[in-house]
């Protein structure tokens, strides 16, 4: 429903997709691999060249805009997951949540700009506005809960921060724990 909604499907393999909004699902679909059971509501949502993308839900303007082959992703909020191409099993809720993630999976980002950098590893949880927003390299198994929690982490694994501004000085460290308001801040970077 909407101008150019589902326009890219043509006669390519697809079943049970729902596209609502201008150019929703309207990308230049490629290949003959089935893309099915996707729901996109919002202008330009799921506008990529879909080829074997299944069971995805996108609600908001430009969500999952580059999706090609990812499965089981949920993105809600303007531009949430808009760079995701083939990542799977991600939950991205909030304006620009998970906005630069492309191929990783099993991430949960809830909050404005949560987990918004180009992280290259999955299994991360970022809950709170700007939580883990700088994670732009290999980051696996991190959990950041709270506004700006672990916001400066670029690369690092298995860190936990809970609380507003918690763990902000953790930049490249592994296996750190920061609990409470402003913990592990204004000190030497953790490793």
Report on the structure:
This protein is mostly beta strands and 191 residues long. The protein contains no helices and 14 strands. The protein has a ten-stranded parallel β-sheet, with no helix packed on it. It has a two-stranded parallel ribbon with strand order 1-3. The N and C termini lie far apart (51 Å). The mean pLDDT is 91.
Task: Characterize the largest beta sheet: strand count, sense, and whether it forms a barrel.
Answer: 10 strands, parallel
Can you count the beta strands?
14
The succession of helices and strands, N to C, reads: EEEEEEEEEEEEEE
β-strand percent reads: 15-25%
Which overall shape is indicated by the principal axes computed on the Cα atoms? elongated
The strand line-up of the biggest sheet is 2-4-5-6-7-8-9-11-13-14
Given as residue ranges, the uncertain stretches (5+ residues, pLDDT < 50) are none
Protein structure class? mainly beta
Rounded mean pLDDT is: 91
Helical fraction equals under 10%
Give the number of helices.
0
Write down the Rg. Answer: 17 Å
CA-CA gap between termini: 51 Å
């Amino acid at each position: 429903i909407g101008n150019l909604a589902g326009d890219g499907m043509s006669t390519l393999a697809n079943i049970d997709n729902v596209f609502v909004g201008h150019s929703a699902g309207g990308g230049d679909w490629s290949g003959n691999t089935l893309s099915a059971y996707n729901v996109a509501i919002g202008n330009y949502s799921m506008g990529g060249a879909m080829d074997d993308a299944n069971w995805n839900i996108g609600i908001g303007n430009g969500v999952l805009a580059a999706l090609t082959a990812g499965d089981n992703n949920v993105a809600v909020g303007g531009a949430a997951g808009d760079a995701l191409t083939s990542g799977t099993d991600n939950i991205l809720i909030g304006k620009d949540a998970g906005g630069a993630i492309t191929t990783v999976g099993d991430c949960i980002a809830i909050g404005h700009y949560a987990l918004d950098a180009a992280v290259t590893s999955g299994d991360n949880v970022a809950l709170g506005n700007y939580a883990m927003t700088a994670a732009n390299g290999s980051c696996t198994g991190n959990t950041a809960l709270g506004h700006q929690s672990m916001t400066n982490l670029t690369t690092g694994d298995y860190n936990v921060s809970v609380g507003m501004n918690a763990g902000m000085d953790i930049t490249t460290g592994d296996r750190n724990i920061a609990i409470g308001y402003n913990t592990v801040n204004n000190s030497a970077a953790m490793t």
